[in-house]
Amino acid sequence: MINLNGVFFDKSAEVLNANNRVFKYGDALFETIKVKNLTVYFIEDHYFRLMASMRMLRMEIPMSFTLDFFKSELLKTVQQNNLENARARFTVYRQDGGLYKPLTNQINYLIEVSPLLNTVVKEQYTIDLFKDYYVYSGLLSTIKTTNKLTNVLASIYASENNFDNCILINENKHVVEAINANIFIVKGSIIKTPPIIDGCVKGIARKKIIEIVSEMNAYTIEESVISPFDIQKADEVFISNVIIGIQPITSYKKAVYSTKVSKELTLEFNKLV
Description:
Order of helices and strands: EEHEEHHEEEHEEEEHEHEEEEH
CATH superfamily of the largest domain: D-amino Acid Aminotransferase, subunit A, domain 2
Shape: globular
CATH topology of the largest domain: D-amino Acid Aminotransferase, Chain A, domain 2
Oligomer: single chain
Number of helices: 7
Strand content: 25-35%
Largest sheet: 6 strands, antiparallel
Low-confidence stretches: none
CATH architecture of the largest domain: Alpha-Beta Barrel
Radius of gyration: 19 Å
Number of domains: 2
CATH class of the largest domain: Alpha Beta
Number of strands: 16
Strand order of the largest sheet: 2-1-6-5-3-4
């Protein structure tokens, strides 16, 4: 079952029409959320990121759209699908109509859930650099809109070439993120991740890892420019998102990496959830 504005429909129901602005213009935001044992992970972080993104896109936020409402609608949808552990997608989009200029800034929301699968960290994980198209730096790239063509094409490239993931770069040839995750590199005691201004998504797991490392004496966290050359010269590389947590990278081109630091951070990250 899917939840459209609080009303449940079968997943096969045709609930969107040809005037839908997600279909026409990618005029939408989404949050991918982990629910385990009917506990919504990092609920406040997801909610406040969504609210900030809606304001940025000049969407009208209904007075009823509170944190409690957000959580309640998520859990109702999970339970309606007879699940306790779920991967949920909460999409907010501008109501139908208009050309580039919308007829209204009022919103609809759609919640989809599926069983929480494929959350096991892989022992061997290879990546490559995707150079065909860029993620353009700037604030719009930092929010989770439904305009993800670069990620789609990079996913096809990874599949065709038997890679687990790809590194995305911006127009300045700076490393931005992986297809579905933020990226970190380790060199000595320094842990680096690309800065927001380079175009990476403001990931929830990214935020938590930065907080964790900031409290550790053994390592220093830096948000600074990373080049593809830096990836090759790193001691370790790992990626993060809220579904998988931390996934160590074991190889990139001719480089082979340790996983010591990422395993340490995984223990700390798991304490949060």
